[in-house]
Each structure stands twice: as C-alpha cells, then as structure tokens.
Amino acid sequence: MAIESPADIPGKFKCIAVLWPSFVTAAIATGVFFSAFNPKELFPFDMDVELSEIGYYSIGFFLFWLLTAVSGFGTLYYAISNCLNCTPGSKFKD
To answer: From CA 18, how far away is CA 77, in angstroms rounded?
Structure first.
C-alpha cells in the first residue's frame, strides 16, 4: 500500500498512533499523580464520596487518558491539515 499523502493513511492507523501512546502516558501520569496525592483527600468542601481506591485510580486514569488522547488527536489534526496545504517539494507554511 503506497501512501502518498497523510490523507491516505487509514483511520484505524491514525487512532492507534494516538491512543496507544496516550494510554502509556496516562498510565505513567496516574502513577506519578497518585504517588504524590491521596485520592481521598482531593475532594473540596469535605464532600463524602463513597468510592473505593480502585475507583479513584480508574477515574483518574481515564481522565488522564482522555486528556492525552485529545492532545494527540489535536496534534494529528493540525499536522495533517498543514501537510495537505503544502505543495510537493515545498516547505511547511508558517
């Protein structure tokens, strides 16, 4: 399969290229964040929330994964749109 432009890359490859690194980054970020902060002490105004520690860690992981995935998809979108605006043999537009 010859890929001549970024638009020719299948969508599943684009998703994998963003979701896998964001998954790994979210796992690392969750470990670092919850090593520094106790999840039961993060609620303001002394709210009493009944949730297990695994629940806190799961919610934190998925929020970090969402944050890094949105960042990755934004980067991919702007990189591809910039490549599509270039003519062959020219440099990126400013």
So the answer is: 11
Largest CA distance in the chain: 61
- 64 CB-side CA count, 13 A: 20
Distances (CA, A) of 37 to 34, 40, 41, 42: 5, 9, 8, 8
DSSP H or E segment with residue 84: helix 53-84
| Pick from 53, 59, 1: nearest CA to 26 | 59
**If the chain, 94 residues long, is cut into consecutive pieces of 10 residues, what is the mean pLDDT of each piece?**
66 86 96 92 73 90 96 85 65 54
pLDDT in tens, 38-51: 887 877 666 777 88
Extents of the domains making up the chain: 15-41+51-83
